[in-house]
């Protein structure tokens, strides 16, 4: 289905939990997080109904996210049920990788297509500073397991922050000379005012590109398929690719193709706007499938044309990223 700006909305991001086993400084505060009470979290039955409704109105790709999706019990079964929807949407997962070594095999068997793993440093010590937890070796084991079972092409999401880890952009980029991974550098987004880093810590797309361009000759790679958020490059002849997600500086809103559902049952038509629709109330009001599809269509028509970061009246929203799912 198309929204009011002619964009085809065929991608659903489903956040299955707001809980996480890390505390990345750019995503959530260390203290004072109030998790949604259990009864406010959509059940897997409810999430599946939403996914089925979305698939019925044209969604072709469903990304499961969190918080950290792998901390929710029963996720593998849920993935299997999503993958079995009659329209056979592509099912993908975004994870911090901590539990991936354990779940990669079962997830692949359940029908998951591939995973995106978030990793912001290649140094164990820095990992602890950035995430306020240990677990670097587990994430590396998770990456190896994902590759081994074929949850590929593997994409790695890295958020460079000036003065913190931006000096590792080159090290990450060099990985693509050896491995068929897509390393995606994401601009730090001021999505909540509750984070350790301010917008001044941003490391914009142009600086990211400059930080890897001197390593070897770089060429642009045309994108396959519609509506990805990354601009793609590769070192000439390298097996892997480099992506830059210029979420703030050169926004890609004109090709936005996505709808988000939060774990507490709100539809969020735009990542950067707190205007949300109460899907949970609808689901729990006894609405039938046609009413659910109408609701999702209304949410699609409520999508704004673009984000307003940089505008004078822009204020970061109330939800930290872990409550949205990225
Ligand atoms: N500004 C903006 N950023 C987004 C949007 N969707 C995803 N991102 C950011 O892009 C980063 C990567 O997101 P992923 O969860 O890996 O999903 P994806 O990039 O859509 O995944 P692919 O299907 O593999 O291209 C995250 O930091 C997201 O917050 C969006 O609609 N707008
Ligand atoms: C919120 S996490 C949820 C899934 C999972 N826990 C993970 O880390 O992959 C999804 C993505 O959002 C990104 N993210 C979180 N906060 C961000 C911020 N302030 N700016 C840019 N990206 C951010 C993370 O790096 C991650 O790739
Ligand atoms: S980025 Fe992912 S892993 Fe890190 S705190 Fe946020 S939800 Fe957790
Ligand atoms: S910022 Fe909003 S409108 Fe722009 S691409 Fe992201 S979700 Fe779509």
TrEMBL record:
Protein name: GTP 3',8-cyclase
Reaction(s) catalysed (UniProt annotation): GTP + AH2 + S-adenosyl-L-methionine = (8S)-3',8-cyclo-7,8-dihydroguanosine 5'-triphosphate + 5'-deoxyadenosine + L-methionine + A + H(+)
Cofactor(s) it depends on: [4Fe-4S] cluster
Source species of the chain: Geoalkalibacter halelectricus
Listed InterPro entries: Aldolase_TIM, Elp3/MiaA/NifB-like_rSAM, MoaA, MoaA-like, MoaA_NifB_PqqE_Fe-S-bd_CS, MoaA_twitch, MoCo_biosynth_MoaA/MoaC, rSAM
MF GO annotations: GTP 3',8'-cyclase activity
Record keywords: 4Fe-4S, GTP-binding, Iron, Iron-sulfur, Lyase, Metal-binding, Molybdenum cofactor biosynthesis, Nucleotide-binding, S-adenosyl-L-methionine
Enzyme Commission no: 4.1.99.22
Protein family: Belongs to the radical SAM superfamily. MoaA family.
Radical SAM core domain ranges (all copies): 4-227
Pathway linked to the protein: Cofactor biosynthesis; molybdopterin biosynthesis
Residues holding [4Fe-4S] cluster 1: 20, 24, 27
Keyword Iron-sulfur: yes
Residues the record lists as binding GTP: 13, 63, 94, 155, 258-260
Binding site for S-adenosyl-L-methionine: 26, 67, 118, 189
Protein encoded by which gene: moaA
Top-level taxon of origin: Bacteria
CDD domains (UniProt xref): Radical_SAM, Twitch_MoaA
Functional summary from the UniProt entry: Catalyzes the cyclization of GTP to (8S)-3',8-cyclo-7,8-dihydroguanosine 5'-triphosphate.
Enzymatic class: lyase
Subunit and partners: Monomer and homodimer.
Cited PANTHER family: MOLYBDENUM COFACTOR BIOSYNTHESIS PROTEIN 1, MOLYBDOPTERIN COFACTOR SYNTHESIS PROTEIN A
Binding site for [4Fe-4S] cluster 2: 253, 256, 270
Presence of the UniProt keyword Iron-sulfur in the record: yes
């Amino acid at each position: 289905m198309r929204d009011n700006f002619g964009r085809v909305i065929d991608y659903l991001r489903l956040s299955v939990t707001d809980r996480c086993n890390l505390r990345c400084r750019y995503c959530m505060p260390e203290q004072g997080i109030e998790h949604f009470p259990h009864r406010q979290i959509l059940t897997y039955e409810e999430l599946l109904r939403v996914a089925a409704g979305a698939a019925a109105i044209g969604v072709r790709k469903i990304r499961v996210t969190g918080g950290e999706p792998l901390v929710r019990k029963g996720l593998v079964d849920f993935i299997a049920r999503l993958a079995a929807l009659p329209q056979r949407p592509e099912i993908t997962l975004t994870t911090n990788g901590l539990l991936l070594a354990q779940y990669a095999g079962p997830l692949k068997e359940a029908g998951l297509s591939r995973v995106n793993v978030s990793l912001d440093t290649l140094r164990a010590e820095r990992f602890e500073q950035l995430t306020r937890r240990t677990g670097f070796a587990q994430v590396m084991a998770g990456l190896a397991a994902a590759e081994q079972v074929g949850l590929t092409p593997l994409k790695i999401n890295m958020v460079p922050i000036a003065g913190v880890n931006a000096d590792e952009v080159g090290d990450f980029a060099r990985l693509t000379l050896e491995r068929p991974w897509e390393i995606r550098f994401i601009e730090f987004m001021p999505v909540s005012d509750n984070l350790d880093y301010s917008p001044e810590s941003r490391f914009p797309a142009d600086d990211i590109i400059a930080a890897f361009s001197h390593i070897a000759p770089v060429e642009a790679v045309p994108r396959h398929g519609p509506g990805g958020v990354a601009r793609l490059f590769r070192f000439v002849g390298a097996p892997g690719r480099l992506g830059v997600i210029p979420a703030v500086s050169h926004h890609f809103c004109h090709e936005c193709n996505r709808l988000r559902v939060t774990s507490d049952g709100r539809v969020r038509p735009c990542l950067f706007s707190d205007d949300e629709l109460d899907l949970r109330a609808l689901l729990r009001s006894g609405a039938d499938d046609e009413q659910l599809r109408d609701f999702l269509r209304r949410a699609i028509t409520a999508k704004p044309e673009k984000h307003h970061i940089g505008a004078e009246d822009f204020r970061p929203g109330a939800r930290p990223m872990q409550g949205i799912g990225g």
